[in-house]
Design a protein that fits this description.
alpha/beta, Alpha/beta knot, 2 domains, seven-stranded parallel sheet, 10 helices, 7 strands, elongated
C-alpha cells in the first residue's frame, strides 16, 4: 500500500540566540523543510533575519508556543536530538539511533514528525527526551561532543533529504492514537503480572523506545494488540478462578 511521505517540523526549544534561529531557517530552506516551531524563543531581531538570507518566509510563518507540551500536542511522532548518550542497554532514556539509521527507518512512517532541538547551553531536559519516541545522536569526537544548533539541524536534514529522494512506500504505519493504545495495553500487562513498581517506569520507556525504533505497521499493531488483549484477559480470568 502506498502512503504519503512524512511531514517534518523543526522544533527549537528555548533558543537563546537569534542568529541561530535565522541560520536554522536558512538550512531548512536548503533541504525543503518549511515548518518551524519555536518554544519560548528569544526575539526574532534583525540579526535573525539577516542570517536567514532568502528563508525569511520560514521565520514569518514560524509558530511560537509558550511551552514544550503545547508544541508537541498535534504531532504523530517525536524525535529528540542530544549529544549525550548512555552506554548501557539498561538505560533507555538516552539510548540513541545514529542519524543514518533514523533517516532510513523514519521514511516508513507517516503523519507529522517533530524534530526536537534543545537549548544552546543545556540541550533537551530529561522529561523532554522522555516524551520522544526516538532519540538520535550525531556521531562526534568525544573531545568535543556538541555541535552548534544550526549545524546539528543541517546534518540531520541533509540525511533526511537524501533518504527522501528515493523512498517507496509499501505499508501504512500507526498514528498517535494507536501508539497510545499500544503503550496503555503494555502498562496494563505489567500491572496484571505485578511487575515491580521500581522497575515499571524504566520498562515502559524501554517498550516505548522499542516501538519507536520499529515504527510498527498497522498489521503489526493489530497483531500485538491481539496478543496483549488475550494475555490480559487470560490473566484476569485466572485471578477470578
Amino acid at each position: 500500500m502506498t502512503t504519503t511521505a512524512p511531514t517534518f517540523i523543526v522544533i527549537l526549544i528555548e533558543p537563546k540566540y537569534s542568529g541561530n534561529i535565522g541560520a536554522v531557517a536558512r538550512t531548512m530552506m536548503n533541504f525543503n523543510i518549511h515548518q518551524l516551531y519555536l518554544v519560548n524563543p528569544c526575539p526574532l531581531d534583525d540579526e535573525c533575519y539577516a542570517r536567514a538570507k532568502h528563508a525569511t518566509k520560514i521565520l514569518d510563518n514560524a509558530t511560537i508556543f509558550p511551552t514544550f507540551q503545547d508544541a508537541i500536542k498535534t504531532l504523530d511522532y517525536i524525535v529528540a536530538t542530544s549529544s549525550i548518550q548512555y552506554i548501557s542497554d539498561k538505560k533507555h532514556l538516552r539510548n540513541p539511533l545514529t542519524v543514518e539509521e533514523f533517516s532510513e527507518k523514519i521514511q516508513e512512517a507517516h503523519g507529522t514528525i517533530g524534530l526536537l532541538f534543545g537549548r544552546e547551553d543545556y540541550g533537551l531536559f530529561n522529561e523532554e527526551i522522555a516524551a520522544a519516541d526516538i532519540m538520535i545522536k550525531i556521531p562526534t569526537d568525544p573531545t568535543y561532543l556538541s555541535l552548534n544548533l544550526s549545524h546539528s539541524v543541517a546534518v540531520i536534514l541533509y540525511s533526511l533529504y537524501l533518504h527522501q529522494k528515493n523512498v517507496i512506500k509499501k505499508r501504512r504505519t500507526i498514528g498517535p492514537t494507536e501508539k497510545q493504545q499500544l503503550h496503555s495495553f503494555f502498562t496494563q500487562l505489567l500491572e496484571e503480572i505485578n511487575y515491580p513498581k521500581h522497575k515499571k517506569d524504566n520498562t515502559e520507556l524501554l517498550f516505548k523506545r522499542l516501538m519507536g525504533r520499529a515504527i510498527p505497521s498497522t498489521w503489526e499493531y493489530h497483531t500485538l494488540m491481539g496478543v496483549f488483549s488475550k494475555t490480559i484477559e487470560k490473566l484476569r480470568n485466572n485471578k477470578k478462578s
